Amino acid sequence: MADAVLVPLLAGFLAAHPALRLDVAATDRIVDPRQEGIDVAFRFGWLRGAELGLVARRIGAYEGVLCAAPLYLDAAGGAPRSIAELGRHAWIGYAGFGGERQMLALWDEAGRRHEVTLACRVRTSSAFQVRDWALAGIGITRLPLMLVADALAEGRLQRVLPRWRFEGPSLHAVYPRDRLRPARVRALLAHLQAQRGPHPPG
């Protein structure tokens, strides 16, 4: 999922620094750069907070949506009309964000914060799989809008609780706090900070 966001940013960095080369490894699992000898790790999605000894710098924020397939909502007796009803639906969760029960914070139209605990029917580390499980009618989930815009436009997915807001996904650069950063890493971080991604409306 990060590829669609990260590759254009890194391509711009290479264009600005023609003498540098990048070695990029892509994976859905959470990587600790200290253990794997990585200068900078990038995480796209909902960061739970940087681990002890790591710095997480947000590069961009993106719009997210709650959504489900009409076939799931029809079978479940309709879309939830409140967060209390949302808590009674099957949830498609992300691995690494807790166990079988995961918490989601939402803001109502008055700006008040609410929390709901959701029971996962499926958990996966891949946003693409989360989307596919939703399309298969397994439950409700949260996804980056860029990943489901076509499915929403075509009616294969529909928004759930559209008047409620929640924190959308972000792209973070994650790196060791105490490690002496080479000039190439400092240059990369400066470039990414200058090219911060789009922020969601509102």
Automatic annotation (TrEMBL):
It comes from the Bacteria. Belongs to the LysR transcriptional regulatory family. Residues 2-195 form the LysR substrate-binding domain. This is Transcriptional regulator, LysR family. PANTHER family: HTH-TYPE TRANSCRIPTIONAL ACTIVATOR TTDR-RELATED (PTHR30537:SF5), HTH-TYPE TRANSCRIPTIONAL REGULATOR (PTHR30537). Pfam families: LysR_substrate.
